[in-house]
């Protein structure tokens, strides 16, 4: 029985299920096993690079440092036993071929790009630009789960129950089951996210790369994998081969291409999948804790492998990155964002773009579905950051979920009392299309829905055509820009009241 492989697969399924469950179960009011932001505390790439780029100590960074310490002991176990994207890639690989036999030169070239990417990310962080989110595996997975998987499955389950109840008239137990699932598995009904198709295609592309070369993303492109590869080169848990018969089976089956032509291995590339233990016909392969100072037989030793980048490549890459990103040393106090409305109390734009890792947590938990991913409205730097789109959903007056689930503090956590006072922007009424102003007919929908106790939308009485008409106007001192007035305005296709990101409280 392949006991170690069975344990690894159980571990992978457990952590993938836990990852999805934590994202799925977080709803309003805040509940669930853990807030989604907790998932990223174990990610040293995100935590360290965000701290460097922002010159702050991001809360939770110590947890990620513990992961690096564990990697120094056990090796690159995260990639083979925990990573949710790695597990999904392994599932996809089941559709592809199993045997891979590539020489050391090919494997060195395949491994090199992820180290280049890690260096670019590190240099960018030193220059004040946070790029870790772009190719981080946990961010890619979280964005897919939050913005694709959960809305799609929730929609399908809801549609299935509605068909059974409405059209097949299966009331009683079916309806009772639906009511039981509504506040639990189904959670908040979120059906729409803009640009979710692009996010889905990126995720599918990453997974399908494994059909070209097994675990190609992990071997060649993942910067978190590169960081763990560097840390695991000195790990105490190492592979030993007692009496190798040079059959080459372990090399052809190695999903990471870590085993070399002479049957030694590149320790930083081994993800402890344990396949080689059971592939060995002579049962000569094992993993043991070996002190660094202890000498080892040649076959047991992970021989020096120059699978990283050369000194010349590093110098060229560093200089190029500095030239391309050097302009970031001249930071502006403000940044033009057009009509993009950020979540409540979001950091000032430049800090927000650096701190936000585009994980999708805030958008998934938004109770009204109002937080949507930006595409190019704020330039390339702002892609997939959150914005409030009032016509889709407003900022709920009593909700603080986005700040409580943000893993890096790009959206600071707020108490309910403080959140009620935070200004996201300022509403304006277009009197040329507003029903009372333009048509002389009664309509006070915006004023009725304004959540501010003193009412930020006031009414002035005016006599039009012999009738007394109440006409709304904005009290700029009271308006918090929550967007509910724009969301509820009955004027179509363009709303008569619209919120703009002016007078916002950006810390």
Description of the molecule:
This protein has 3 domains: 3-146 and 201-289, no CATH class; 153-197, no CATH class; 349-500, no CATH class. It is elongated, with a radius of gyration of 27 Å. It has a two-stranded antiparallel ribbon with strand order 1-2. It has a two-stranded antiparallel sheet with strand order 3-4. A two-stranded antiparallel ribbon has the order 5-8. The protein has helices at 3-25, 44-54, 61-74, 77-82, 84-93, 104-126, 137-167, 173-181, 196-208, 216-221, 223-232, 249-253, 275-279, 311-325, 349-355, 361-365, 401-405, 416-419, 435-439, 445-449, 484-488, and strands spanning 237-241, 285-289, 371-373, 386-388, 426-429, 457-464, 467-474, 497-500. By secondary structure, it is mainly alpha-helical. Mean pLDDT is 86; it is low at 295-304 and 329-336. Helix 6 (104-126) runs parallel beside helix 14. Strand 6 (457-464) and strand 7 form a beta hairpin.
Topology, element by element:
Elements: H1 3-25, H2 44-54, H3 61-74, H4 77-82, H5 84-93, H6 104-126, H7 137-167, H8 173-181, H9 196-208, H10 216-221, H11 223-232, E1 237-241, H12 249-253, H13 275-279, E2 285-289, H14 311-325, H15 349-355, H16 361-365, E3 371-373, E4 386-388, H17 401-405, H18 416-419, E5 426-429, H19 435-439, H20 445-449, E6 457-464, E7 467-474, H21 484-488, E8 497-500
Antiparallel strand pairs: 1-2, 3-4, 5-8, 6-7
Helix pairs in contact: 1-5, 1-7, 2-3, 2-6, 6-11, 6-14, 7-9
């Amino acid at each position: 029985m392949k006991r170690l492989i069975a344990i690894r697969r159980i571990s992978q399924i457990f952590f993938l299920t836990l990852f999805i469950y934590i994202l799925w179960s977080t709803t309003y009011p805040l509940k669930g096993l853990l807030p989604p932001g907790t998932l990223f505390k174990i990610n040293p790439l995100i935590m360290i690079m965000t701290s460097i780029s922002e010159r702050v100590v991001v809360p939770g960074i110590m947890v990620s440092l513990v992961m690096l310490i564990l990697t120094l002991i056990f090796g690159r176990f995260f990639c083979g036993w925990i990573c949710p994207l790695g597990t999904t890639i392994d599932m996809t690989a089941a559709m592809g071929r199993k045997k891979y036999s590539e020489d050391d030169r090919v494997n060195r070239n395949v491994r090199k790009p992820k180290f280049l990417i890690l260096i670019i990310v590190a240099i960018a962080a030193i220059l004040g630009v946070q790029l870790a989110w772009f190719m981080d595996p946990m961010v890619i997975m979280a964005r897919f789960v939050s913005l694709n998987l959960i809305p799609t499955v929730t929609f399908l389950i809801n549609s299935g129950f509605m068909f059974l109840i409405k059209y097949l008239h299966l009331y009683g137990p079916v309806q009772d089951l639906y009511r039981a699932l509504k506040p639990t598995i189904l959670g908040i009904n979120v059906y729409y996210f803009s640009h979710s198709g692009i996010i889905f295609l990126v995720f599918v592309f990453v997974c399908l790369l494994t059909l070209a070369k097994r675990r190609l993303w992990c071997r060649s492109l993942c910067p978190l994998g590169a960081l763990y590869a560097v840390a695991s080169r000195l790990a105490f848990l190492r592979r030993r081969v007692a009496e190798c018969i040079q059959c080459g089976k372990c090399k052809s089956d190695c999903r990471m291409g870590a085993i070399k032509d002479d049957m030694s291995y590149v320790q930083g590339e081994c993800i402890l999948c344990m396949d080689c233990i059971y592939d060995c016909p002579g049962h000569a392969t094992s993993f043991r804790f070996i002190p660094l100072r202890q000498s080892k037989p040649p076959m047991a030793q992970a021989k020096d492998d120059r699978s990283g980048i050369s000194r010349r490549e590093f110098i060229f890459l560093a200089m190029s990155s500095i030239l391309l990103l050097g302009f970031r040393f001249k930071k502006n106090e403000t940044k033009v964002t057009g009509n993009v409305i950020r979540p409540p109390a979001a950091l000032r734009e430049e800090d927000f773009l650096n701190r936000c890792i585009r994980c999708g947590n805030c958008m998934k938990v938004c109770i009204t579905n109002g937080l949507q991913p930006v595409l190019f409205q704020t330039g390339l730097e702002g892609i997939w950051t959150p914005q409030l789109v009032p016509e889709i959903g407003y900022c709920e007056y009593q909700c603080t979920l986005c700040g409580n689930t943000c893993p890096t503090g790009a959206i600071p956590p707020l108490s309910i009392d403080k959140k009620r006072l935070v200004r996201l922007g300022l509403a304006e009424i277009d009197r040329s299309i507003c029903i009372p102003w333009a048509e002389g007919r009664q309509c006070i929908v915006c004023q009725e829905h304004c959540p501010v106790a003193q009412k930020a939308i006031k009414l002035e009485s005016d006599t039009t055509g012999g009738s007394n008409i109440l006409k709304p106007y904005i009290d700029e001192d009271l308006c918090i820009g929550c967007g509910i007035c724009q969301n509820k305005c009955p004027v179509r296709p363009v709303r008569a009241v619209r919120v703009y990101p002016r007078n916002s409280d950006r810390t």
